[in-house]
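Please decode residue identities from the backbone states below.
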């Protein structure tokens, strides 16, 4: 063997040795604060942790669970978490307050907000809810979607409003009432407690148009580290496809670890309803992929909120979101 061949062989061996012993590139540490206790409605994020999707994108992600005592939006504002599960209205409010928060993806095309009615009261369409003397809802709902309901349907009035205390007993006991809820949660609870299936009306299917379950960041993050934002968005989208259409066992185990009161039956119900009603995959997401947002959709919702007096028409609501990271068809091949 020639000296040159020997040297080449030694160099190649040395290169292999260095490659084998060199430390792996460090992952970027990222935190995502949710808006409530761990549940299937957060499943895609847990999926991307459980199946290594975040790691594939160079990320080490910690999910910071929300809940009654959590203040994850405040943590985002303070820079203590990197991303938060915000809402379009929350980011419109941030524009009003001159807080630089911005939505970078919309995981839910439809807000899962519903109203429920008893099954035997002749309430067959959304507009029929105006016939009922009582609607149990929270103050936030009364000030937002109920004002939208009054502006867009005949017969709704403030006299119908009664505070909802997150206890379904008053609704169950009063056949001539409706109650607010989340598509993936309250109908399940009522059926388990009352033994009958409530009539469910998704506000989004009657024209109430906000996105939901956002990925929200500080404007500074978008400006200074767009690559990290893109990787987190893309990995989260893949996580959601895999959660809804793949093996989600490991993700559900993480959900139940964070929230021990969560059950397999509740998780299965929630996933089924998200699919049945197109909460994640519908509208713009059918073409652009999960997370897709458009200017037209935001404008429609903002104009509706202006019409009911929540915002001034001259508010620059476009500061509340950016479409630069979404609608690229990421992960669509994972849908089965």
């Amino acid at each position: 063997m020639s000296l040159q061949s020997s040297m080449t062989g030694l160099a190649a061996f040395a290169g292999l040795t260095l490659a084998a012993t060199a430390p792996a590139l460090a992952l970027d540490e990222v935190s995502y604060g949710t808006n409530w206790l761990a549940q299937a409605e957060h499943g895609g994020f847990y999926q991307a942790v459980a199946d290594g999707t975040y790691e594939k994108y160079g990320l080490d992600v910690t999910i910071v669970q929300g809940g009654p005592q959590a203040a994850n939006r405040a943590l985002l504002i303070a820079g203590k978490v990197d991303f938060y599960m915000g809402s379009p209205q929350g980011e419109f409010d941030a524009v009003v307050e001159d807080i630089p928060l911005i939505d970078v993806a919309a995981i839910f095309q439809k807000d899962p907000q519903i109203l429920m009615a008893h099954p035997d009261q002749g309430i067959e369409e959304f507009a029929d809810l105006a016939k009922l003397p009582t609607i149990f809802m929270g103050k936030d709902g009364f000030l937002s979607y109920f004002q939208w309901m009054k502006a867009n349907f005949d017969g709704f009035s403030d006299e119908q409003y009664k505070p909802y205390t997150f206890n379904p007993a008053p609704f169950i006991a009063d056949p001539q009432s409706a109650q607010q809820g989340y598509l993936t949660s309250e109908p399940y609870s009522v059926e388990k407690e009352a033994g009958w299936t409530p009539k469910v009306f998704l506000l989004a299917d009657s024209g109430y148009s906000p996105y939901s379950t956002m990925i929200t960041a500080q404007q500074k993050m978008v400006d200074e580290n767009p690559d990290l934002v893109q990787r987190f968005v893309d990995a989260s989208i893949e996580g959601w496809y895999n959660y809804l259409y793949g093996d989600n066992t490991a993700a559900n185990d993480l959900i139940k670890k964070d929230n021990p009161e969560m059950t397999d039956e509740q998780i299965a119900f929630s996933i089924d309803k998200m699919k049945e009603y197109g909460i994640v995959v519908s509208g713009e997401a059918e073409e652009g992929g999960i997370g897709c947002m458009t200017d037209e959709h935001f404008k429609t919702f903002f104009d509706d909120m202006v019409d009911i007096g929540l915002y001034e028409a001259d508010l620059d609501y476009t500061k509340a979101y950016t479409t630069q990271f979404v609608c690229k068809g990421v992960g669509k091949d994972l849908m089965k």
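Observation: Residues 226-245 form the longest helix (20 residues).
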